[in-house]
Every structure is written in structure tokens, then in C-alpha cells.
Amino acid sequence: xxSSFFRKKSIDKIVSDQIEIEKLxxxxxxxxxxxxxxTFLGVAAIIGASIFSAIGQASANGGPAVSxxxxxxxxxxxxxxxxxxRFAATVPISGSAYTYAYTSLGEIVAWILGxxxxxxxxxxxxxxxxxxxxxxxxxxxxxxxxxxxYLTMDFLSAKRAYADAQVxxxxxxxxxxxxxxxxxxxTAYATAPVLFGWHFVANIPALLITAAITYLVYIGIRETxxxxxxxxxxxxxxxxxxxxxxxxxVQVDNWSPFAPNGxxxxxxxxxxxxxxxxxxxxxxxxxxxCTNPQRDIPKAMMWALIICTVLYVLVTLVLTGIVPSxxxxxxxxxxxxxxxxxxxxxxxxxxxxxxxxxxxxALLVYQLGQPRIWMTMSRDGLLPxxxxxxxPKYRTPSFSTIMTGxxxxxxALFANLEEVINLxxxxxxxxFVLVCGGVLILDLDPENQKKSKFKIPYINAKYWVGVSFVxxxxxxxxxxxxxxxxWTAHWVxxxxxxxxxxxxxxxxxxxxxxxxxxxxxxxxxxxxxLVNLYLMTQMGATNWERFLYWCIAGFVIYFSYSYxxxxxxx
Length: 570
Hints:
This is Cationic amino acid transporter 9, chloroplastic. Keywords: Membrane, Transmembrane, Transmembrane helix, Transport. The chain crosses the membrane at residues 38-59, 65-85, 196-218, 230-250, 262-280, 301-323, 343-369, 399-417, 423-444, 456-477, 497-515, 522-541, 547-563. One of its GO terms (molecular function) is amino acid transmembrane transporter activity. By secondary structure, the protein is an all-alpha fold. It has 3 domains: 2-143 and 207-441, Up-down Bundle (Amino acid/polyamine transporter I), CATH 1.20.1740; 155-201, no CATH class; 464-565, no CATH class. 70% of the residues lie in helices and 1% in strands. It is built from 23 helices and 2 strands. The chain has helices at residues 11-23, 35-46, 49-62, 66-90, 97-104, 107-142, 155-170, 180-191, 204-218, 221-246, 262-267, 270-277, 293-322, 334-341, 345-379, 398-414, 417-442, 446-450, 464-476, 480-488, 496-519, 523-537, 541-565; strands spanning 194-195, 198-199. A two-stranded antiparallel ribbon has the order 1-2. β1 and β2 form a beta hairpin. α4 crosses α17 (417-442) and α7 packs across α8 (180-191). The mean pLDDT is 81.
């Protein structure tokens, strides 16, 4: 029975099943996406909440050096993109990383990956909806329309702000001296209607935009594509204005020191920076709506990553060049704030208005990807059949799309932005790790390599991984004192879990060095696996705890339902 948990779907079986599905009346979707459309979907997803919101706190933590973290993370994503492209060119099905894991790692791994993709897409969209709401409310304020504070934020933030404000006021501080976020939260909690002893504080704009986007995705891929292309063009124009105009106000002195809080400050922003890039895998979820998925998806992934990395680096440098990085802490709209600091209130208004458009496109793509993964899991029997229903008129996964709207819209009412970004990032990196590992396993069979129209450039990892392991250990633990302190920290102090995670990473690195030497593994997937694993170690104990609870819940569902209902179950 244990081996049946790791039962796999062969590539030939997946492709033949897809052919049969497309032959059935009402079973197929509309193939309408080319390279440009796919690239724009990737740009829409990647250039979202991070560049308009999270980039501020990331810059406050790490200073201008965060720009290098964007590059480092982009390189990790590029390694991963090669692996995604390798799978997408071999298995052109909408299941994304879930399908890829099914062919290489087995059903139980594919299930838990699909379960975490649910987390990635749903939580990511919650984060984008919250950011959208903030900019929309600011835009309405600028136009003279005030929305009550208790209808524009989450309950937890408002309650915390109320408590903090009460402490500060009891100590004699003036209300006007409190930060903007604390004042707004206090007002929201204090003025909210009380229902059954509960202060009603909810983010209504986040719910409404989720409902609107869900409707657009529901009625068809052509409409979604056209809207997304328009929004992305507007988004890119705004970012070019931000960089072009902002460059004239950069003060080079603000870039010194380049990393004011050291490497620890830079790494503190790992979650936010990883969150910036999670969207590129959404391209692969549209494989069944591409005119030529095996050729176009790999190209679109690479183009989207290159374009977005350049933009993130430029925006970070301009932002930290105009505003000292320490001043960006707690700023939810850093790009608009940047221009108000230099007196360009008109440009700040344009940025705030454009952020609404930009975040709408990100929301659109995430809301597009999740239902297609559920649809594929349902076809395999791991979810109820309703999730794979295709609407007879709109040719979209109708029930899955509605459920996605519900699972994003309701949490968006009450969720906290920082918490959901952290939780989403660790789920994304987990998916990246399994995709890179899946390529390594899949390519052990030469026959599988022949079935792909996209080849990852082969560099023999035989010696590179082992040599890099020795160098990495030496750089991290250069002397006996550092070794002693490192081992002691496993049992003493607040960072015990972090040290165990790092030790596990070094152990996996050593195992990969052994297999690289023994079977001549390909270097690019190995690097993708290692870099993503390292980024996961930087997520902190709290995020790991929540991630493990989520995985346990997934295993409960798998053993109670999916294992027995799987189409591979005998």
C-alpha cells in the first residue's frame, strides 16, 4: 500500500487523456493565448502588490541592497523557470506544478503540492485584494469621497492599533503624534458598529473587487486576456513614469550605507521579495488555452522574469534614492509617498490611481490560475467532479472559478497583509523546490528527455555541487568558534528552529553533492532546488509552523477522500 501513495501518471497517459477530453463535447477550453498574451499574464502577476506596497517595508528592512535580493531571487526563479519550461513543453496540461509532480514524484507528493498551490494562489490573491483596497480608498479620498475606516481594513489590525493607541494616549502622547496606521486603526475600531459584542471591521472594497474579477474570469479567457493586456500596458507606462521622473530626484547619499541593517536586514525581506515573483508559474496554468503551449510557455516565462526583474531593481533604487530607507517603515503606498516627499503631489496621485489598475491585473491572473489547477486535480479524481465542470457557453471551469472567488473574497475581508504575504511565500517556494526536484527525477529516464520540445542547457553538476558545498560551509563557519556557537544555537536561544532548518539545508546540499557526482545530475535544476530551499530556511519558525499545519490538513483530506477516489486507485 505504501508504494501506491507514490503511484505516477506517465507522460503518455496524461497526453492521451487530454486528447480524449478535448474530443468530448464541452470538455475542452478555447485556445486563444500566444507568447505576448502569456508574457503579459506573467508581468501582470509579478508586478503587483509587491511593487506598490511590500517594496516599501522591504526597503526599510534592507535598504538599497534589497535590489540585489531581487536579483538573487530572480536568478533562483530563472533556474526554476527552466524546470517549469521543461515540464510545460513535455506535459502541456493546465495543472502547473501539480501535474509535473504527478509524473515525476508520485500522487501523494502531487496532492500536497496541489494543496499548497491552493494556499499560494488564494492567499496571494487575498494580499493583492487588500493592497488594491488601500489604494482605492486613498484614490476615493483624493477625489473627495470618504469611506468609513471600519469598512476599509481588517479586524486584527484595527484591534491592535486600538490597543496601541490606548497605551500611548494613557502615557500622555497626543493623538496627532501617533502614526497614520495607528490613528486609522484606532478610529476604525472605535467607530465600528458593535454586533453581539463584536466590533464590525471588514475590508469591503477587497471583497467587491474580488467578486468583480471572479465574474470576468468566469465569462471567458478571451475577455480576460484582452482586459489583462490593456491593464499591463497601462501598468508598464506608469512604472516607466515612476522611474523616469523619480531618477531626477535621486540623492546618491541615500544609497550609503547600501545595506544599513546588514545582511540580516536584507534577508528579513525574503518573504516580500519571494512574494513578488510567485506569479510567473501562473503562466503554466493556462496551457490548455495556449495556441502552442510547448513552444510559447517557456518563452513567456523567461521574458516575464527578465522584464520584471529589471523593473523591480530600478524602482527599488529610485525609491531608496529619493527617500531614506528607514523612513519607509510602515508605509503602505511607498511609490505615491515617494513623490509627495519631493512635492510632486500630481505624480503621486497618478501613481495611486494607477496602482488600482496595476493591482487589478495581478488579481485577474491569480484568479485565473487557481481554478485551472483545481480542474486538473478533479479530472484525476483527487477532488470532487464538480471542480472539473466546463461551462457550456463560456468554456471556463465554472464551479472552480466560483469557489476561488469565495475562498479569496471572504478572507480578504478580515486578513492582515503581512501575515498572508509570509504564508504565501513559503508555499510558493515549496512548489518551486518540488518542480526542480521533479525534473531531476524525470530526466533520470532518457526516454522522458526525448519527449520534451524544450531542453534545459546541460551542465554537468558532478564536481560543482560538492565544491560549492565545501566553500559554503567554510564561508558560513570559518573557524572553531563559529562551529561551537552554531551547534550551541541549536539548543539555546530564540533561533533554535532556524538553526535546525539551516542544518537540514546543509544536509540536503551534501546529499545532492553525492548524487551529482554519482549520476552526473544537471546543474541548473540542482541550483534551483538549493536556492529555493535556502530561501525557505529564511522564512522563520512561525511561518514553518503554519505551513506544516496546512500540510497536515492536506494529508487528512488525501487519506480520507482523495486516495480512494483517485483514478489510479485499483
